[in-house]
Design brief:
It is a single chain. With 170 residues, the protein is mainly alpha-helical. It is built from seven helices and no strands.
């Protein structure tokens, strides 16, 4: 009996997690974004190109992890502009991952999944990217289930309305 209760508890927990809609991606506060922007301004004045690129990557990370959609859009634009000039595979992997996070935050799940797949082509065992891909696929599945539920409810309501109308005519 205890085994059955434990399995039932696991099922209920997984269904609850499925419909809770929570992802495990961190959010970034406006203070952190502002700090990264100051860091970029300081790096423009007095540092090497490599240090400047590191500061821009940190700012991009903060922007795509922001709670504010306009910040996420800025982060995506920065990353897309810098990606073609990126030759180092590790930097390319990082930028692809951050782009995938940005598109996920914007609810463009198919674009996000494509980018995380490109990231995994560079580093197949990178746990962050694997976790993000699972999060994206779970979100796509959840949205599909909710969409089917809404469609089924609409069909049921229409069928019920037609049945009620037909029964009143008799």
């Amino acid at each position: 009996m205890a085994k059955i209760e434990a399995k039932l508890g696991m099922i209920v927990d997984s269904v609850g997690q499925f419909f809770s809609g929570k992802d495990h991606l961190p959010y970034c506060d406006s203070d952190i974004v502002a700090g990264c922007e100051r860091e970029v301004l300081e790096a423009e004045k007095q540092s090497s190109k490599e240090h400047m690129q590191d500061c821009l990557l940190r700012l991009s990370w903060a922007l795509v992890h922001s709670k504010h959609p306009q910040d996420v859009h800025r982060g995506i634009a920065m990353l897309e502009a810098s990606l073609p000039a990126t030759n180092d595979p590790l930097q390319q992997r990082e930028k692809l991952y951050l782009l995938a996070v940005g598109y996920y935050r914007n609810a463009d799940y198919s674009r996000s999944r494509d980018l995380v797949d490109r990231c995994l082509a560079i580093a197949p065992d990178w746990r962050q990217a694997v976790t993000l891909k699972k999060t994206i696929e779970d979100k796509i599945t959840k949205d599909g289930v909710i969409g089917l539920g809404i469609a089924a409810t609409a069909v049921g309501l229409i069928a019920g309305g037609i049945a009620a109308a037909v029964s009143r005519k008799k």
